[in-house]
Amino acid sequence: GAGVSQSPSNKVTEKGKDVELRCDPISGHTALYWYRQSLGQGLEFLIYFQGNSAPDKSGLPSDRFSAERTGGSVSTLTIQRTQQEDSAVYLCASSLDRERNEQFFGPGTRLTVL
Amino acid sequence: DQQVKQNSPSLSVQEGRISILNCDYTNSMFDYFLWYKKYPAEGPTFLISISSIKDKNEDGRFTVFLNKSAKHLSLHIVPSQPGDSAVYFCAAPSDGTYKYIFGTGTRLKVLA
Question: Nearest-CA distance from A4 to chain B in Å?
C-alpha cells in the first residue's frame, strides 16, 4: 500500500510569507507526528495528533507554527511570517493506534526561507 | 525529560567489518527503544527495536543491545555493506506515550 506522502517536496519562500505543508498518512493510522530536522541536527518533535486532536503541541517552536488534522487523515502544518531559522526539512510520520508501534515517515518537505 | 545522545556524528567502516553505533539516554522509566535508518532525501525508515525485557534483539545482520544500568544502546551491523551507508538515529520514549525523542544521528560510511 501507499506510504506516507508529503507535499510539496521542496518549498522556497521569502521571509515573512506564510507556508503550508501537507501530510497524507498511511490509511488507517490514527497517530500522526510532525518533526523538523535542521542542518546538522537530529529530529526535533513538533506536534503529535491522535485522531483529529493534538494532545501534545509542546514542540511547536513559536506561535507562528500551527497544525491541524481533519477527518483523522490529512494534516497541514502552517508556518506564518516565516523566518530564516525556519529553514529545515519537515518530516511527517504516522503509526497505528497501538502501543509501541513504529512510526512510518514520509520523504519530508525541504523548506528554504530566503 | 528524556534526552537521547549519539555522541559520534560519523563513523567509517570497511566493508565486511562490524559497525557499532552507540546511543545514550537519560530516562529509564520507559522501556521501548527504536533505531531508524535514513538515506539522503528520504524519510527515516524503521530498522529494529528493543524492549527492556530483553538485553538483545537480532534481525539478520542487525543486532541491538540494551544495557539498562548504563542507559546505553548499541546497534551492531555485521558484516557491514556499502548499502548500509546512511544516517542512523536512535529514539527513546519521552513520556510513555507515542512521543519519541530522537538522537542527532550517526552518519555511517561503509567503504568498499
Answer: 9
B60 at the A interface (CB within 8 A)? no
Beta carbons within 8 Å of B3's beta carbon, 6+ residues apart: B25, B26, B27, B101
For cell 501534545, name the residue: A56
Give the CA angle between residues A50, A75, A87 to the nearest 5°: 115
Neighbours of A96 (CB within 10 A): 14
Least confident piece of the model among A93-102, B1-10, B18-27, B51-60:
A93-102
DSSP assignment letter at A63: T
Q: Phi and psi for B4 in degrees, rounded to 5?
A: -125, 130
Q: List residues of A whose CB lies inside 8 A of any B CB.
A: 4, 31, 33, 35, 40-43, 45, 48, 50, 55-56, 91, 93, 95, 100, 102-108
Q: Are B33 and B25 in contact (CB under 8 A)?
A: yes
